[in-house]
Structures are given as C-alpha cells and as structure tokens.
Amino acid sequence: MLEQRIQQHFIDSADLKYQAAQVLSHPIAAAVQAVLACVTSGGKVLACGNGPSAAEAQQFAAFCVAGFERERPELAALALTSDSTLLTAATGGTHDAAQQFARQVRALGQAGDVLLALSVSGNDANLLAAAEAAHERDMTVVVLTGRTGGKLAAMLRETDVLISVPHDRAARVREVHALVLHCLSDGVDAQLLGEQENPL
C-alpha cells in the first residue's frame, strides 16, 4: 500500500510536468529573455519566496552566480531570503513582516533589474509588497506561482512575466517550480554560450 502511494506521487508529478510543458514553455522563454536582458546590461536578479520557495530563490541565485551546468562568467543575483538580520529587523519598535522583501528591493533594486518572486498561492503579503516596490523601481517582475496566480498575477504589468503552474497541490507546484528554475538557468546559459549537448 505504501509503495503504491509512493508510485502515485511519481505518476502525478510526471503527468503534471507533461501537461504543463506546452502551457509554460512560452512564459518561461519570456522569463529567460527578461533575465538575459537584465544581466547583459549590468543589472541583477533579486529573488524571494517563503518557506520552501525561499530555498528555491536561494538556489536560483546560486545558479546565476556559481553557474548551472556549464562554466561561465558570474551573473549578478541575490536571494532576499538569506539575511536573517534584515528579515527580522524591527523598524520603529514594530516589525512589519509584509515589508521584509520590499525594503530590500527599495534599497538594492534599480531600473532594469528583475525581481523573481516564488509563491504557490500568489497571495503572500510580503511578495505583493516586494512586487509593488519593484514596480516603483521600474524593475521587471517574474512570478512563479500555482493555481490562478492569485493577487500577484492581478498586479503584473505587460512587461512582467507570469509562470503559473496549473495545479492546486503545493507539493506538485513546487516540483514544477524546481524544473522551471532549471529551464531558466539552462535557457540563459544557452543564449549566452550557445547550444550544447546535455552535460554528463
């Protein structure tokens, strides 16, 4: 019984990825172009998310700086989820958690930079505030979310990119998010360095 349950996870994950391939390939390609335009013009990617999505934001920043599957020059990227002092800093005696990423975006973000926000629901208050701060800085916002994209999807501009995994279950959405980040990293490398056979 347990083995069947485990096998079902693999089947459900594979089915969703197969179904999402056609739906998500266009917005992922648009996100690759946004990141590429940013980093090749001297800009940087600021990445953020909550919980497991925070770890994914850190992983994407690491792919940009340290490389994905090929050697290449470093690309400027920073995970806004990494500095525990900033994330827990109180302002005026009160701590407004909804502003934890927005403060960093306002401090570090510049026109031409990209904000990469990861959220299963698309309704996280701190990510909504970060996207608003990014718009104030004339940054492009790339959102990875699930379901319908929530409030984040509703606030995006024409120049922003929405990658919304068509599923309700958080675990399935995060599995596809991990693949999307791999596609983004590989797409940027392919555009910068040219196509190559899959590395070993």
From TrEMBL:
It comes from Acidovorax facilis. CDD domains: SIS_GmhA. This is SIS domain-containing protein. It comes from the Bacteria. Pfam families: SIS_2 (PF13580). Residues 35-198 form the SIS domain. InterPro entries: GmhA/DiaA, SIS_dom, SIS_dom_sf, SIS_GmhA/DiaA_subfam. The lineage of its organism: Bacteria, Pseudomonadati, Pseudomonadota, Betaproteobacteria, Burkholderiales.
